[in-house]
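Bug #77: duplicate submission created two jobs. Keeping one. Sequence:
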Amino acid sequence: MNIERLISQLKRDEGVRVRVYNDSLGYKTVGIGHLIKSSDPEWLRDLKVGDKISMEQVDSIFIDDLTSAIHDTMKVFEPVWECFPDIAQEVFVNMVYNLGVTRFLKFKKTILAAYSKDWKTVAVEMLDSKWSKQVGQRAYRLSAQIERV
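Kept job's structure:
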């Protein structure tokens, strides 16, 4: 997996925001697509829309989120993960970063096709989802990357 390429894609896809904002579903979000959760530290939970954090805080939150996304994605594909091309690994981590592992696990046909390394089916199934309509060009770009594997 090319971490620099993955980080660049996530920053482009999620955006980098030092001010707290409401995402498209109305949830408080900050940094690089970090949904503020009840499990976050108190200082982060207490932020209000419009509050500002430092770039150092953005980076720290991002590293934690990215590490979790990589770990969760590896667990989903544990027996075959090491056999996946870098691009496939990066696409799946990107999806898990965006969706969370619980929602990603609902992509049953996508996951099953990935286990079989049927990349064309993976690409099609990625686009046959509510997620693809929500994220638009991101889904098409990631699907195209998978299709070329």
